[in-house]
Input
Amino acid sequence: MKRWQKWTVAAVVVLVAVGGSRAAGWWGTSPADDKSTLNFGLATDIQTLDMSKATDQYSDTILGNTEANLLRTNSKGDVVPDLAKSYSVSSDGLTYTVQLRSGLKWSDGSALTAKDFVYSWQRIADPKTASQYSYLTSGVKNADDIVAGKKPVSDLGVKADGNTLTFTLEKPMPQFKYLLSFAQFTPQKESFVKEKGSKYGTTAANQIYSGAYKFEGWNGTNGKFKMVKNDNYWDAKNVKTKTINWQVIKNPETAIKLYKQGKIDRAAITNSPEMYSANKSNKDVVNSAMASATYLEYNQAKNPFLQNEKIREALNLATNRKDLASQATGGTRDAAKSLVSNNLVKAANGQDLSNYVAPGYTYDKEKAKQLFAEGIKEVNKGKMSVTLETDADSPIAKNTVDYLKQAYESTFGDQISITEKIVPFKQRLQDSQNGNFDIVVSNWNGDYPDGSTFYDMFKATDTGMNNGQFKNQDYIDAVTKAESTDANNPSARDADWKAAEKALMDSANINPLLSWKGASLARPNVKGIVTNPAGLPLDVTRAYRK
Output
């Protein structure tokens, strides 16, 4: 295949974080020494403030900085008490007991209680909520039956007694402590949710806040809003910044220009190959680990060609991941070795988990041709015509589909025709969730540092993030074993993840493409920002200008 070099600069694919004094003509007035205000940006629009329904990193960024959970991830990557005063785990790993701090309040001054956590867990498990994250409750007593509509939410193993919360599990879950810091499990005030009804979480005013900041100014569609210090937050005395302005910045070059003009203090440089190449040697660059992966999902429920295993395997074999990472991303991403991204967590043997589980994805053009021809003959529907969908808000995503289209059409010739479908992020998300695609470029950022955050996505066809609707029993068995009999045995659990990866590759259910890297221009006088490889990508609750 001839060397592919088509760079595009359009919009931002990952969070653009920018902090500092207000820039004239952008944020408003420009008080250069205003230490009470920071300014940040999001790459694309917020989808919802309903924590039970939010699945995108942009909504989660707002929720993660305005809502608090029992625990919170600190700068060392450890979970520490937040709304909880303390927590303990039984010796068998089946009971978590949490003591809340006394006198907790919501942003409106009303009492925040243990019952608010019970309601939030029940709401996400309730099939009426239709939460895509309901699968994360699996393992809590009766959760699976509740999600399936077989038992009432009141049977969920999350109970409140005064200031004490008790979580009863059906099996040990090493990752459970991380769920107690997860944005989707932050408390929800039942009376408020019911009062707002269908409007809940659709605007800043239709949400109530438990965290360091209150959210203001978002009407559900606009791209400019702010966070204001929540004086009712239990640790408000250590929240140093009074106001954080946010704006949707869809042009990555704008953030770079504003940074270089001294008007903002942080801007990502990994949003296009050109920007990365031009700025990677700048002395202000800070690198951050990201547990994010890009992969192809094949619609195995609706597309007869993609139901054929030989065709899927041929597409995987025709994917030169190293060349893709170099040509389409300019080195801003690494070639994927497995579904699980780099930097998520270490395996028990000390290896990065992505290296340990790597099943051996290869590039083999000749074998790809052979398998594709066999698959086309078996399907017997003539030429394979499919759409390849991605985000219009991302230059690297557009580069990726351009590269893949050329690679597949040059490999399989007149046996295949690919139409690129480039849509806004919000539509791509909806198309994925609704199964309205043939092949879609999907991105996943780990929610917590444990292999289950990736592998739980595909345990079932009707829950989680299994948008391609495949069922792989070998995969299900391996993941189930990791989360049951091997749950307390780290080495055996890692071996199960490895078996799950092999099952995915053997059946070509997905196509791992890229593992992300983070790099930003960051002025050193803005302190206290925490970047997390998994979970909340940018924690600014303790950020301040020195």
